[in-house]
Structure formats: C-alpha cells, structure tokens
C-alpha cells in the first residue's frame, strides 16, 4: 500500500473526462467547419521550440510564465505559450512553400505558468485564425464575417462584434497633443468596460486635465449608428489628417461588406475598443455574446503590420482573431447548447446471458452499418447493473436480445430515458426506428 | 539584418503545413468515427505531469528519452512519452467518476528524445483505444473488430490481423522446461519477421539446443487454418495444462465472434506473435496492410492484467491497441487514398477589379449557405496571379464576376483543372453544379 504513487495532476492542469472532451471536440469541429468554409486551412507547429525563437534574442530574464528548460542535448528550449509567435516563425520559415495571402487556422495547446489562484489554467487550448500577406478591407471584413458565421454555427444566440481602428484613436490623441501620453490613456480607456464611464473620466482627468478628458469621453462614446460614430470620430480629429481619413475609409469599406453580407446587425463601431497597446496597427475587434455578455469577449483580434519581423525582412501584414474556447464552452453549457450530438454509443446491446455472444456482436455489426453507434456489454451481469452503466454513459437505448426473442425473431428495444420497451418485428424496422431517433 | 533570429524548429520536430495537417486530420476523423461507432469515448490528459507519475518512484536514473525538468515552482515534471502511463494514472484517479468497463480512445502528442538518425521524430501523435475493467472474450474480440473496421473505413485495402495468446507460448515453453529462458526465447521469436526462419532457428538452437529449437519452430509455424494452428499449439503443450486450455478456449471464442461478424478473412492465429515481453498477459495482435506489409504493423496491442497497479490497489484488467498514425499516413499517401476530401476552399471568388467587393462577398455568403467552401481573393491582382494562388492551394474552381457578368446576371465559372469556363444563368444553377462537383 505505502508504495503506491498518489494519482494526481499538476496544479493548473486538468484531465478531460469523456463528456468534457466530447463537448470540446464538438465545439472545435464546428469552428473548423466555419473556418474551412471561408478557405482557412489548418497548420500545426511543435509544442517545444528553441527559447530564442519563442522569447527573442537575449531573452535572459525569462518570463516566469514560460516553461523553459535545457533538454538532454543542453539546448535552451521552451513550451509554446501562444500560437502567434510560432506562427510568425512558421511564416518566416515556410513563406516560399506557401501562397500569399495565407489563411490559416491553428487549434492547439499552449502552456503558461499562470497564477492558478485566479482560476487560470497552466495548460489550455488556443484557437487562432489569420489572413497574412495583404492589407485591405476585404481581408479585414472576412475575419469579422468568419467570427459572426462561427458564432451562428454554434447557435449561441446573437453576438455583438465591436470594431474600432487603432489609427483613429491615435490620430485623435495626437491632435490633442497627447502623443506622449498614448500608453496610459489607452490603458485607461481599455478599463472602461470594467470600471464604468465615471471612473474612466476621473482617471483620464488625472492624466490630461478635465477639458481633454471630457473630449476623450466624447470621442469614445458610441453614437446611435456606426456611421454617426465614425462621422463624430473624424470630426474630432484634425481636418487634414490623412491617416485618420484613411482609417475612416477602411472602416466604411469593412462595414459596407459586412452589411452587404446580411451581418450588419451583429457589428458596431465602438471607439472605446483598444485591444492592448503595441501589437495592433489597424482594425481591432472584440466579440461578446448577447445572451452572456458577462463572460467577457469570446473572440478578439485585429490587424498588425509585421507578423514575423523578428525572423525575416519580408513584410507580412496580417489580420486575425483568437477564439476563447473555454469561455465558449462555459457559454454553451450554460445556454444548454452542449448536448446536441447523439450520445456515444447510442445503443447498448445488453448481455442477457441467454443469447450467444456471436449474435450480439452480429447485431452490433448490422447497427453500425446503418450508422448507429453501439456496443455489446461484454459480460452477462445483472440487468440493473447494465442499465446503470448505459445511463451513466448517456446511452439512449438498450437492445435486449435473449433466447426467447431470438427464437421469435423479434428485437426488444428499451428506451432508457422513458423506461419503456418496444418490440420490433425485423432488424430493418429496428434500424429504421433508431436512425430516425438519432436524426431528431 | 544581423539581428534577425534564424527561423527553425528543433531537430526531430516538424511543422505540419496545410496539406499534411489536413491529411492527418482526415485520418484522425475517420478513426474517431469508427471508435465512436463501437462505443469508445475520448479523453485527454495533460502533456506535462509529475515525473514520479510518469517514471515511477525513485525514477532517479531518468530515461534519456524523457523530457524531464524542474518547473518554475521547482517541481520535478516531465512531458508524457506515451498515452498508456497517463491513462493508468487517469483510471486510478477517476475510477469512481467513470463506468466500468470503460472504453476510451485518446489521440494526442507525446515526446521522446529519440535518436533522430533512425528517422524517428521527437514529437509525434499517438492513438490508443482500450476497454478496461473486464477480462472476457467479448472485449478481446471488440478490439479486433474495431481494428478491422477502422482499416476498412480508411479504404487501405485488405488487412491481416495476426493474433496470439501469451499464455499458450508461455505454457508451451514451461512444458519444455524453458521457464527460465522465456525472455531470450521470446526475444528471438519476435525477430522472425525480420531475420527469417533459418536464422531464428539457429539462434534458438544456441539457447536451447537443436531438438527443442526444432520443436519451438514447429510451435510457431502457422498451419493452413487458425483452428488447425490452435489444435497443434494445444497438442504441443502439456495435456493437463489448465492455463493453456483456458487460453485456447479464449482464442476460439474470439475467432468465433470475429467470424460471425464477417471479418474472419482478416484474422489469423500466428503463434510467432509475441508483442514484447512484460506488459501483455493474454491475447496479443499485430495488424499489417496486405498492400504494404513492408511498412510494418499499423495497429498492435493486447490484453494486460493490471493497468494502474502503480497508483491503486484496484484491479483494472484491460485490452487495447495503438494505431500507427505516421505509418498509416505513409500508406494512404502511397496508395493514393489521401486526397479524397474536397479541397479547401472549393471555389476562389476572383477579384477582377471591376465588380464591387460587396458583390464578391455576397456571392461567397450564398455559396457557403449551399455548403460550398469559398474565399474572396482580397485584392484586384492580375488574373494569372490569382489562378496560380488558387492552383497552389488545390482550389478547383474560380468564379469570375466582373462588371459585364454582373450586368448580364450570369455567373462565369472557371474549372482550374480543365482550364475551361462555363457560364451559369442563375446563382441556383451555379450552386447546384458546384454541389454536384463536391459530391464527386
């Protein structure tokens, strides 16, 4: 006894039991179907890379969150902590084998030694999709259209994609003489969703004084329509600001495409969306579920100028987004949209003890050929035990073949939810009924 | 320039470009469909675990192949090197939340610092499926049936599953007074596929003398039928050997089930199959493709007595197998069975420059609603450039909307393989044609 090893996982790590894993894989399947319908193709990269690749040159003071170590060949290696840095390395390495613009999606695990007290996991799955190698409204719009389409496919109710353009805010602040204070101002604006407009305003006033704070608050307040919001934002920038004008044109083009596609109701221009400070250079967006805004953004992203400048002199502008899989799973579960797929298996072929195993496995082959998942209970345990097993697994029906039913050539099927049994007079009738039950 | 970091992956690691990743995911999807049709459900476990869990207590002299290190909290951790050890820990930890017998599959990456000179990778994907918590013929047979069904679903031509029972060989060798020499004899028998019967016999003779070596060669030689082979094997064991008799009965039951399911042609009893030395205690099997036997076994496994004895006193007998994904991918590619799925995207909506972007994206929405994957080329580059892009991506068709075709309400579709263009007089006609083309 004392020599047993306690079975446990590392703090911040978790097992996926079948129900959770099936929910995750159903979600991922639906997202993949949407990505592919838009022409995105999948890639994968190694979990482990040179630390230099992931952290940059001279990454001496390692981020505490990174799992970094020396491998058995004394190489300085690390587990990937996101999918963006490996994608940048991937594009620099394989650019000549690929076709630009390159649309890829990547769904995979990443690792971060996060503080688990905040409910964070140290191993989690990320899901990114990007269009790299072009800077144009069509690509920007396609990312937004993909987001809205994916959320529709998940059946999570309506969504609100809040869109902004980094250049508009930057040029407005420059016009106010605040270019030096860009970072603290954006950081404060970014907090508005959490702390509310009052506190945002007083924090801004500390930075910029009351008059300019009021102007910033006016700038970031959405108007009744996105076009009214855009008109106001442009009016608050300097009149001859070409960068601001170009950003306005880009936003107009993106909104026009999204509206032409019938998705106009799901998007709005929100000048308060900033999405961090350094990385993004163009359009940015955040997506919330109308039914559950409180879980936060479920899909965010934006446009960046140079994806892979650490590894190549080639210019690789891009636009992309990341899906929050864990938040979406929480939402699907809360909204009761998880269990749509048929349980696995759909039918338990009970082992009554009086039918030969050959017959049970033969019936299973027939059901599988009809597209019905099923399993033979391997031993002739008592029926309540077998029913309990099936119910715990979520199995819907039990086929009760025994000596009598085999002699009478009938197929008794127990509905494990309704707790009633129906007798079918032929295998085809049984299979037909089950196919109908799976379909709906 | 000099400050750029060279983009490269670690030796023994690799990126998956879209074609390779789509091939892998198509293979995995088909395997999963078969597993689920047999009632297997998926799980996942962390990539990183306590080294003690993965390597056992006092794992002082670490296997050189294991990626083991101290994390930022000074925990002794390691990357999983297979899916079996994590599954054992998983079963010990979650037994009370699960239902026995527990049928699970698990597809995930594992890491081993292998010698890459032999063409081995240090990161690769494993695919295991097992039935745990029962020791009976039905479960043994179900693993064999799953293997044959999975290979049928992959359309790789016929397969040969060679089956044996470890107890028969062990009891035969015990009857010859060779219990002490079990390990070297099994190791030699295991080599027969590679070195041939002549050399096997002479190696055995060095161990056991000529007379017994001849007897072993007789024992491991398959007869014309599996039942004849089994009869001979039993005849060569001691007459009153109950373990041998029980093993013979089990094999007969398994073969009877497999034959009743119509899969008899794919299985045979081969007394030369041993599958390693320690782990397996009952039935063992190896699967080869008839079309490509030279790539080695594509699915192997067997029955074991105690899955999780390192972590729990609970008895967890099981039976399972592992699929060789890389070998199957090689086989599928060689046999020309990889490219069955429709390319992503199926249609490029070309950007002729004279049609508004809104119309291009609107057409894309319509095609997607009809189930056709498509993408809008984002910029109005020259047509040869757009065609080259589509061809490199494997896209089959290009929709050529321009000012003229929009004015005439027609839909010109270019077949990028046949290099011919057809004009459709309505969007429905276009969508109908494309749906037919996807279907085959």
Describe the model.
- Two copies of one chain form a homodimer.
- Chain A is α+β, with helices and mostly antiparallel strands.
- Chain A has two domains: 18-45 and 80-334, 2-Layer Sandwich (BirA Bifunctional Protein, domain 2), CATH 3.30.930.10; 347-439, Anticodon-binding domain (Rossmann fold), CATH 3.40.50.800.
- Chain A has 15 helices and 16 strands.
- An eight-stranded mixed sheet of chain A has the order 1-5-6-11-10-9-7-8.
- In chain A, helix 6 packs antiparallel against helix 7 (192-208).
- Chain A is elongated, with a radius of gyration of 28 Å.
- The two termini of chain A are 50 Å apart.
- The model of chain A has no long low-confidence stretch (mean pLDDT 94).
- Chains A and B meet through helix 1, strand 1, strand 2, helix 3 and strand 5 of A and helix 1, strand 1, strand 2, helix 3 and strand 5 of B.
């Amino acid at each position: 006894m004392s020599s047993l090893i306690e079975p446990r996982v590392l703090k911040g790590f978790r097992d996926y039991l079948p129900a959770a894993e099936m929910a995750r894989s159903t979600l991922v399947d639906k997202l993949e179907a949407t990505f592919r319908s838009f022409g995105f193709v999948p890639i994968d990269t190694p979990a482990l890379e040179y630390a230099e690749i992931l952290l940059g040159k001279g990454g001496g003071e390692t981020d505490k969150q990174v799992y970094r170590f020396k491998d058995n060949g004394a190489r300085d290696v690390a587990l990937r902590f996101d999918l963006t840095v490996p994608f940048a390395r991937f594009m620099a390495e394989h650019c000549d084998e690929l076709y630009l613009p390159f649309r890829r999606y990547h769904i995979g695990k990443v690792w971060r030694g996060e503080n688990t007290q905040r409910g964070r996991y140290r191993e989690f799955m990320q899901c990114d999709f990007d269009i790299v190698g072009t800077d144009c409204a069509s690509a920007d719009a396609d990312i937004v259209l993909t987001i809205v389409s994916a959320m529709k496919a998940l059946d999570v109710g309506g969504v609100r994609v809040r869109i902004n353009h980094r250049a508009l805010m930057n040029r407005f602040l420059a016009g106010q003489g605040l270019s030096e204070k860009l970072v603290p101002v954006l950081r404060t604006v970014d907090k508005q969703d959490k702390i509310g407009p009052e506190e945002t305003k007083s924090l801004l006033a500390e930075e910029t004084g009351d008059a300019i704070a009021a102007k910033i608050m006016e700038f970031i307040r959405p108007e009744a329509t996105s076009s009214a919001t855009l008109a106001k934002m442009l009016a608050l920038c300097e009149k001859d600001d070409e960068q601001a004008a170009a950003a306005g044109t880009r936003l107009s083009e993106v909104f026009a495409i999204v509206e032409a596609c019938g998705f106009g109701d799901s998007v709005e221009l929100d000048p308060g969306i900033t999405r961090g400070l350094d990385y993004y250079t163009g359009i940015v967006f955040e997506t919330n579920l109308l039914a559950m805004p409180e879980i936060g953004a479920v899909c965010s992203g934006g446009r960046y100028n140079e994806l892979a400048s650490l590894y190549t002199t080639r210019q690789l502008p891009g636009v992309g987004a990341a899906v929050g899989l864990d938040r979406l799973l929480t939402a699907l579960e809360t909204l009761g949209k998880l269990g749509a797929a048929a349980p696995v298996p759909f039918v338990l072929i009970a082992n009554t003890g009086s039918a030969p195993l050959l017959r049970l496995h033969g019936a299973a082959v027939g059901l599988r050929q009809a597209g019905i998942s099923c399993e033979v209970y391997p031993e002739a345990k008592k029926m309540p035990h077998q029913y309990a097993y099936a119910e715990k697994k979520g199995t819907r029906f039990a086929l009760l073949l025994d000596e009598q039913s085999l002699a009478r050539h009938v197929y008794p099927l127990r509905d494990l939810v309704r707790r009633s049994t129906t007798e079918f007079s032929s295998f085809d009738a049984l299979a037909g009924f089950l196919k109908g039950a799976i379909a709906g």
